[in-house]
Design a protein that fits this description.
With 183 residues, the protein is of the alpha/beta class. The protein is built from 9 helices and 7 strands.
Length: 183
């Protein structure tokens, strides 16, 4: 089996290394690799920004792919605009994945696009639901509205969505009309 795990924009290898949580964040994927699952981590970072993590012994068996080209200025808008091109450049690898997985549902639009381009199922995992948090807020920004709309697309089209509580499971069933939810 081949798993393609996607980090979120601005929340991936570089940040986890900086704040000291890289080993914790990648422990599940290291364990899956030890069990014989081929793990590929697709990150929205430039190779030069994540340093020598590729060479660390603790991540043997995990294949890292930096989707963000070195020549492109680093921004959320550039990431969204160029994402289909980034995914097309690695489509041969992507089409070999059995399943794709998000790091956060609200930041998983690139996983949705990859699943469409590569014709693969994907799992959406969320620690919280942005739409639920925004539900009672009056001070929503344009960025909030767009990100919540993207989260709905990701969650509604996932093969399965994992949420952290029964409350969020019920909220998503009623408000997001997700097909397959698990807690």
């Amino acid at each position: 089996m081949r798993l393609g795990f996607f980090t979120s924009y601005n929340c991936g290898i570089a940040l986890w290394t900086k704040i000291g949580t890289l080993n914790r964040e990648l422990s599940l994927y290291r364990r899956l690799s030890e069990l014989g699952i081929e793990v590929h981590i697709f990150t929205l970072e430039r190779k030069r920004d994540i340093g020598d993590v590729f060479n660390e012994d603790s991540f043997k068996g995990i294949v890292f792919h930096c989707l963000y080209p070195n020549w492109l200025p680093f921004s959320r808008l550039a990431a969204l605009v160029f994402m289909p091109l980034m995914l097309l450049t690695i489509r041969k690898i992507g089409k070999t994945m059995d399943v794709l997985k998000t790091n956060q549902g609200h930041a998983g639009i690139h996983v949705y696009l990859a699943a469409k381009i590569w014709n693969r199922p994907y799992v959406s995992r969320s620690g919280y639901i942005l739409n639920e948090q925004l539900d009672n807020r009056k001070d929503r920004t344009f960025k909030d509205i767009v990100q919540a709309w993207l989260e709905r697309i990701v969650m509604r089209n996932a093969s399965i969505c994992f949420v952290p509580s029964e409350h969020l499971l019920n909220w998503c069933k009623m408000n997001l009309m997700c097909k397959h939810l698990e807690c």
